[in-house]
C-alpha cells in the first residue's frame, strides 16, 4: 500500500504471512456414506454384524481465531454429530508440502468444552526426528466424550527448519456433541418400603440405535430385581455312566454301573422385548425395576432416602459406533412417613357376598415414644364392607419402631369391587388420632 503526500512517496509494506513447510489436517473416523438410493435399508440388515461396513474419514474444516470467537453455535450439518458416550477418533495428519526437510516435529492437542480443558496429546518429549519433503506423519487421538455441547479442538505443531528456526502452526476445529437418549423416570412407593422404578428410554438420535446392555446399579440401601426378563425353569435329566474301579478287589476292577443324576435347575432369562433390542429414531421403550430395602438397613432410612441408583447404557449405532452412558443418580421425592403406619399383609383369594372374611393387618409405631393403640370402627364411612364383631379393639402397648400384626373380620354387603375403610387408630396416651378412610380394595363374588 502506498500513500502520496506532496512529492514524497511513503510505502508501507504489510507483514507477509509465514510460509510454513508443514500443513495440518484433522480427519475424523465416520460412518460410511450412503447414497440416497441405499439410505432406507431394513433394520435387520443394518444391524447384521456379518454385513461389512468399512468406516471412512471426513475432513474437519479448520477455523481462524476470529471465527472461533464469533461463532457461539454451529450448524450441526457441517460435520457429523458425535453422540454422548461415544469415542472421538481423530487422525492428525502433518504433511510436508515443501521441498525441504522439517525436523523435531511435535504436536499438542487440547479439547476445550464449556467446563474444562483436556489435553489429548503432547509429543514434545517424543518428537518425530524428520519428515521428508512431500511425506506425511499421522498422529491418532482417541477420547471418550463425556460432556454435551460445543467442543473446540486446538492443535499446535512445532517444528524446526534446516536453518534452525523454530516455527509454530496452530489450527482450531469445532464439533458438537448431542445426547443419543432421553431418560425419564417415574417412582411408585409402596407401603412396605418397596419401590417400583419405571425408566423410559427414548432414542433422540438421528439414527437407529441398538441397546447392547442396560444395567441398573441400585443405591446402597436397596436390593433390586430386573422385571424386564422372563424366567423359564428347565429341569434337565441326564443319564451318566460311571466306571467304578476298586483297586483292592481284582474282580471289581472293570465293573460298571449306571447312575442317573438330576442336573441343576437351569433358569433361562429372556428379555420381554425379544431379541431385537434396537430403537428407531424417536422410539420409546420402558423398563421396570423393583427395589426392596436391604434386611440389614434401617427400614426408616431405606424408606426416606432419595437416592435410588444409576443406569448404565451401552449402545451401538447401525453403523457400528459404540458408546457408554451412565446417568446421574436417579432420585425421588421421599414419601412422608406417618407416625402410625397401618397396612394390609394378607387378603383372601376368594371373598363371597355376605360371607365374613379376615384381613391380615400390621400397625407400626414410627414415633419415638410408646403408644397404646386402639382401633375404632366408623360405621358411617365404611360403605358396603362392615367390620364384624366389636367396634373397638384394643391392641395394647407398642414400643417405638415396633409393629404388631393382627386380623380384622369384615362382612361384605355388595358384590363387585369394594373399598375397605372407615377405621380410626387412636393412641390412648397422647390422644393422637389417624383416620383410615381407604385401607385396601377387594373384589366380592356372588356366593354359590
What is the CATH fold-level name of the largest domain?
Immunoglobulin-like
Low-confidence stretches: 1-6, 33-55, 74-79, 235-267
CATH architecture of the largest domain: Sandwich
How many strands, which pairing sense, and closed or not: the largest β-sheet? 6 strands, mixed
The CATH homology group name of the largest domain: Immunoglobulins
- Helical fraction equals under 10%
The CATH first-level class of the largest domain comes to Mainly Beta
Shape assignment: elongated
Main structural class: mainly beta
Textual characterization of the structure:
4% of the residues lie in helices and 53% in strands. The protein has 448 residues and is mainly beta. The protein folds into three domains: 22-33 and 45-178, Immunoglobulins (Immunoglobulin-like), CATH 2.60.40; 181-228 and 272-331, Immunoglobulin-like; 340-444, Immunoglobulin-like (Sandwich), CATH 2.60.40.10. The radius of gyration is 37 Å and the shape is elongated. The chain starts with a strand and ends with a strand. Mean pLDDT is 79; it is low at 1-6, 33-55, 74-79 and 235-267.
Question: Outline of this structure?
Answer:
One of its GO terms (cellular component) is TRAPPIII protein complex. Residues 236-335 form the Trafficking protein particle complex subunit 13 middle domain. The chain has helices spanning 43-46, 65-70, 299-304; strands at 2-5, 8-11, 22-30, 56-59, 82-83, 87-96, 102-112, 117-122, 128-131, 136-144, 149-160, 166-178, 181-189, 195-203, 209-218, 222-226, 229-234, 237-243, 256-262, 266-271, 278-279, 284-293, 307-317, 322-326, 330-331, 340-346, 357-365, 371-377, 385-387, 392-398, 403-412, 416-420, 423-427, 433-436, 440-444.
Amino acid at each position: 500500500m502506498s500513500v502520496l503526500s506532496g512529492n514524497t512517496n511513503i510505502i508501507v509494506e504489510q507483514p507477509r504471512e509465514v510460509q510454513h513447510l508443514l500443513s495440518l489436517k484433522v480427519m475424523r473416523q465416520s460412518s460410511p456414506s450412503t447414497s440416497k438410493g441405499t439410505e432406507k435399508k431394513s433394520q435387520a440388515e443394518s444391524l447384521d454384524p456379518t454385513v461389512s461396513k468399512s468406516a471412512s474419514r471426513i475432513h474437519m474444516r479448520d477455523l481462524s481465531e476470529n471465527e472461533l470467537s464469533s461463532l457461539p453455535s454451529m450448524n450441526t450439518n457441517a460435520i457429523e454429530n458425535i453422540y454422548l458416550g461415544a469415542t472421538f477418533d481423530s487422525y492428525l495428519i502433518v504433511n510436508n508440502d515443501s521441498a525441504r526437510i522439517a525436523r523435531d516435529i511435535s504436536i499438542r492437542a487440547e479439547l476445550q468444552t464449556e467446563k474444562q480443558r483436556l489435553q489429548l496429546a503432547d509429543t514434545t518429549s517424543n518428537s518425530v526426528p524428520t519428515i521428508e519433503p512431500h511425506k506425511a506423519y499421522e498422529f491418532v487421538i482417541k477420547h471418550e466424550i463425556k460432556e454435551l455441547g460445543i467442543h473446540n479442538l486446538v492443535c499446535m505443531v512445532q517444528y524446526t527448519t534446516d536453518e534452525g528456526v523454530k516455527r509454530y502452526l496452530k489450527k482450531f476445529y469445532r464439533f458438537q456433541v448431542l445426547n443419543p437418549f432421553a431418560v425419564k423416570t417415574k417412582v411408585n412407593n409402596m407401603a412396605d418400603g418397596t419401590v417400583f422404578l419405571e425408566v423410559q428410554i427414548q432414542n433422540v438420535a438421528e439414527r437407529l440405535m441398538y441397546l447392547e446392555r442396560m444395567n441398573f446399579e441400585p443405591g446402597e440401601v436397596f436390593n433390586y430385581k430386573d422385571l424386564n426378563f422372563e424366567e423359564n425353569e428347565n429341569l434337565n435329566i441326564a443319564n451318566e455312566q460311571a466306571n467304578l474301579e476298586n483297586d483292592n478287589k481284582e474282580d471289581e476292577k472293570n465293573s460298571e454301573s449306571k447312575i442317573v443324576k438330576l442336573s441343576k435347575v437351569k433358569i433361562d432369562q429372556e428379555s420381554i422385548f425379544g431379541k431385537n433390542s434396537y430403537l428407531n429414531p424417536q422410539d420409546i421403550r420402558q423398563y421396570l425395576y423393583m427395589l426392596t430395602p436391604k434386611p440389614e438397613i434401617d427400614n426408616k432410612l431405606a424408606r426416606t432416602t432419595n437416592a435410588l441408583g444409576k443406569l448404565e447404557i451401552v449402545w451401538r449405532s447401525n453403523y457400528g459406533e459404540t458408546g457408554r452412558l451412565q446417568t446421574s443418580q436417579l432420585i425421588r421425592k421421599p414419601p412422608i412417613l406417618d407416625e402410625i403406619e397401618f397396612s394390609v399383609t394378607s387378603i383372601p383369594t376368594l371373598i363371597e357376598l355376605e360371607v365374613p372374611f379376615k384381613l391380615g393387618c400390621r400397625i407400626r409405631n414410627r414415633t419415638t415414644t410408646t403408644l397404646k393403640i386402639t382401633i375404632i370402627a366408623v360405621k358411617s364411612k365404611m360403605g358396603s364392607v362392615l367390620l364384624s364383631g366389636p367396634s373397638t379393639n384394643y391392641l395394647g402397648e407398642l414400643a417405638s419402631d415396633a409393629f404388631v400384626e393382627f386380623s380384622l373380620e369384615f362382612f361384605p354387603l355388595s358384590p363387585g369391587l369394594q373399598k375397605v375403610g372407615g377405621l380410626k387408630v387412636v393412641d390412648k396416651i397422647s390422644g393422637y388420632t389417624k383416620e383410615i378412610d381407604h385401607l385396601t380394595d377387594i373384589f366380592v363374588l356372588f356366593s354359590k
